[in-house]
Specification:
globular; Helix-turn-helix domain-containing protein; single chain; 52% helix; mainly alpha; 434 Repressor (Amino-terminal Domain)
Length: 99
């Protein structure tokens, strides 16, 4: 079963990804804020999950927006598919890189 770009789940996923990138947070951080699994958040962002009202409220709170703003259409669906937010680089624990 293919998912259409006009599917509301895809639109929501793109919007979540867009807002997460705007806040410069990773999936892991947003999932922690919302108390959901990162893998589930990934499915939401890819349009493969159909989140409950409770999850929508948690996502809105984690992204610091209203539920209404969360449900607004994404601004640029073509660009949002390629957004990557990386976690901070790991802190060195005493290893020295030799060149």
């Amino acid at each position: 079963m293919s998912i259409s770009a006009s599917d509301p789940r895809v639109q929501l996923g793109l919007r979540v990804k867009e807002l997460r990138a705007r806040n410069k947070i990773t999936q892991e951080e947003l999932a922690d804020r919302c108390q959901i699994f990162r893998t589930y958040l990934s499915r939401v962002e890819s349009g493969q999950a159909n989140p409950t009202l409770t999850v929508l409220h948690a996502l809105a709170q984690g992204l610091e927006v209203s539920v209404q703003e969360l449900l607004d259409p994404p601004l640029g669906p073509e660009d949002a598919r390629h957004i990557r937010v990386r976690a901070d680089p790991p802190i060195s624990r005493g290893r020295v890189l030799r060149t």
